[in-house]
Design a protein that fits this description.
The protein has about 220 residues and is of the alpha/beta class. It has a domain of about 110 residues: Rossmann fold, CATH 3.40.50. It contains eight helices and seven strands, in the order αααβαβαβαβαβαββ. Strands 3-2-1-4-5-7-6 form a seven-stranded mixed β-sheet, with helices on both faces. Helix 4 links the parallel strand 1 and strand 2. The N terminus is likely disordered.
Length: about 220
């Protein structure tokens, strides 16, 4: 993996039981903990990884309910989410910065015949946020889970269709990107919903933001 000085340093987590900003979970959000705990045990003992987005489960459910079968999706930062999204969309462009994971995932996609997924390797920050090849107002969903997140969020907004969604993962530890979406919401350009909980096989709290742009 290449070290890119343009990428922001991660925020140090205050507690695994709260978000990076110190927000506590509601009792409903705590419901994701037992499942994550079992998945963590299976991962550590058997090496079993859950083929789902490693984001709060409530966010996964929201994305699953929203995505139309003919959806066109952009993903910055590939993962098991790439395989999950590939089953729920017509076209997927996924951009990855870790060469080892890129090669592994490329082999998995080829073995499964997932030709509608365009997996690209980009590790330089400004390249990861360059979506000039994507037509404006053509995407149903953009998932920002890697790269320079604020720049990626800013560049992806014009690419979304009316009614499109932008999902910012780890919004609690990416204040610049979160502030950008909050400003858009304050201007009436989108609505925001926060999702918090324990991602699959993770014993720490994570937050993601969904921005919905009006039709």
């Amino acid at each position: 993996m290449h070290a890119d000085p343009d990428l922001p340093a991660p925020i140090h987590r205050r507690s695994r039981w709260r978000t990076a900003e110190g927000a506590a979970l509601t009792w409903r959000e705590w419901a994701s903990f037992p499942v994550a705990g079992v998945q963590w045990i299976l991962l550590k003992t058997l090496g079993h990884r859950v083929e789902r987005p490693w984001i709060p489960p409530s966010a996964t459910r929201a994305l699953a309910a929203y995505l139309p079968p003919d959806a066109r999706v952009l993903e910055i930062g590939s993962g098991f989410s790439t395989l999950w999204l590939s089953r729920r969309c017509a076209r997927l462009l996924s951009i990855e910065a870790d060469q080892g994971w890129f090669e592994h995932l490329r082999g998995t996609l080829a073995a499964r015949g997932l030709t509608h997924v365009d997996l690209q390797f980009r590790w330089v920050a400004d390249e990861m946020a360059d979506f000039s090849q994507i037509p404006d107002r053509s995407l149903d969903l953009c998932v920002v889970d890697g790269g320079p997140r604020c720049a990626c969020a800013q560049a992806s907004v014009p690419k979304l269709k009316p009614g499109g969604w932008l999902y910012l993962d780890n919004s609690d530890s990416n204040p610049e990107a979160k502030a950008f979406l909050r400003q858009l919401a304050a201007e009436g350009k989108c609505t925001l919903t926060a999702y918090r909980g324990f991602p699959p096989a993770c014993l720490y709290v994570s937050e993601g933001l969904v921005a919905v742009f009006p039709s």
